[in-house]
Specification:
15 helices; six-stranded parallel beta sheet; single chain; glycosyltransferase; ten-stranded mixed beta sheet; metal-binding
Length: 451
């Protein structure tokens, strides 16, 4: 796996291939201050609640590490409660700015496009209070932010760097049963952002390829930067036994864990069905299996938050499935440590940060072979990748872990080693390289923009 920012170039009908590392002459400097946009989810919200998830973790960790290498970050996000301070210092060199746009409570992500004008107004008001040239670059996350970023970058005369995180065309090609397709307005919005961006950051080579294939992105503008993991927080620590003792879990149990938002896209139902299939075949395992589901409903799961509870009852596994509300990052690390295996049967993952987080604690991963998960998980070394979402296939792997408990430790040790190559410091340094390239290229083209 490349340790570097990878640049893409077109190679005829075969798609894209990595080219050399981006190299910059010494005269090029990093931006001093970046306006980071996260319209629909605040970096201050707890992952696993509402629409907060991996992207929140990504923005918080990236911003902290950028600040540590002297790139100041101001994160603009929508205010979701009254009385929030306009500005919060998240860390030295990282500010979160709350923008009033629409009602605080009860506004679904699907309703946010109607509030983008109000959000843009708030961003422009903040900018108007600064001297010219306050921001050197705009980095937008997800398509809603990209729409605002497009306008802000043009107005301020600075480059736009955009990270999709997920893409409508990719999600719609792999919809879970009962999930709602992404609307045409999002596809149009994403297409506009791809065209307007100076640089696009993809989590994996596959995502870079999807940007080129589905959105006709210029391969020269797409850079691959793997997300990282907080290797100080997600550690093997004092081990599985101690974590189980703290969480009140039996020492000798098989513990397949689901951690994430409860929505069709993440497919927690596949795990529940797999456990039911396993117990139908091996009823003696019932006394030594515990299945924690850590997370809250979100997205299209909000309409039917009790559906997973009902499914567990219908399949006769309510006694082994334990529903846990979302937890903070420190306690999440303990859940990962305690688990025998993290199960991620998702229909789509741009990367799957929790897969790396779990592996960093010494826990193997059983995941669908989608999106960035084949990069995050080394098949048959740090876990298992499954093609498709057939519960019986997941049940077979769970049976392997039940019959060969040593697999948890041997794969877990390999997983912890693998995760160590995904530090946020590296991700931030590579992101800063992308910023530098975008600023340099933007300056080169300024005369023609104003000519």
């Amino acid at each position: 796996m490349s340790q570097y920012v990878t640049r893409f170039r077109r190679t005829g009908a075969t798609g894209t291939t990595p080219a050399a590392r981006l190299r910059f002459p010494g005269i090029q400097r990093r931006p001093r201050r970046v306006a980071m946009l996260s319209v629909h989810t605040s970096p201050l919200h707890q992952p696993g609640t509402g629409d907060a998830g991996g992207m929140n973790v990504y923005i918080v960790e990236l911003a902290r590490r950028l600040a540590a290498i002297n790139v100041e970050v101001e994160i603009f996000t929508r205010a979701t409660a009254g009385g929030l301070p306009p500005v919060v210092e998240l860390a030295p060199g990282v500010l979160v700015r709350h923008v009033d746009a629409g009602p605080y409570e009860g506004l679904a992500k699907e309703d946010l496009p109607a509030q983008l004008c109000a959000f843009t107004h708030g961003v422009m008001q903040a900018w108007a209070g600064h001297r010219p040239g306050h921001y050197d670059l705009v980095h937008s996350h997800y398509w809603l932010s990209g729409q605002v970023g497009w306008l802000a970058a043009q107005r301020w005369g600075v480059p736009l760097v955009h990270a999709m995180h997920t893409m409508a065309k990719v999600k719609n090609a792999a919809l879970a049963v009962g999930d709602t397709p992404e609307p045409a307005a999002r596809v149009i919005g994403e297409t506009q952002i791809v065209r307007a961006s100076d640089r696009l950051i993809a989590n994996t080579a596959e995502e870079a390829d999807e940007l080129v294939r589905h959105y006709d992105a210029d391969p020269e503008k797409v850079a691959v930067v793997h997300p990282g993991v907080n290797l100080e927080r997600f550690t093997v620590g004092d081990g599985r036994a101690a974590a189980r003792a703290r969480l009140g879990l039996p020492q000798d149990a098989l513990i397949p864990l689901f951690a994430g938002r409860i929505q069709p896209l993440k497919a927690p139902d596949v795990l529940v069905k797999a456990v039911a299939a396993l117990l139908a075949e091996r009823p003696e395992l019932r006394s030594r299996i515990v299945v924690p589901v850590v997370g809250g409903p979100s997205g299209s799961g909000l309409a039917k938050p009790a559906a997973l509870h009902k499914l567990a009852a219908q399949l006769g596994v309510s006694d082994v499935v334990r529903f846990q509300p979302p937890v903070g990052q420190e306690q999440l690390a303990d859940w990962f440590r305690a688990a025998s295996v993290l199960v991620m049967p998702s229909y789509n993952e741009s990367f799957g940060l929790v897969a790396i987080e779990a592996q960093a604690t010494g826990t193997p991963v059983l995941a669908a072979s989608v999106g960035g998960l084949p990069v995050a998980v080394r098949n048959e070394e740090t876990g298992f990748l499954i093609d498709g979402h057939e519960p019986a296939r997941y049940a077979r792997v769970l049976r392997e872990f039940a019959d060969h408990p040593h697999l948890v430790d041997s794969m877990g040790a390999a997983a912890a080693r693998h995760a160590r190559s995904f530090g946020w410091d590296r991700s931030a340094a590579e992101t800063a390289d992308v910023y530098t390239a975008a600023v340099h290229e933007h300056r080169r083209h300024i005369p023609s923009h104003h000519g």
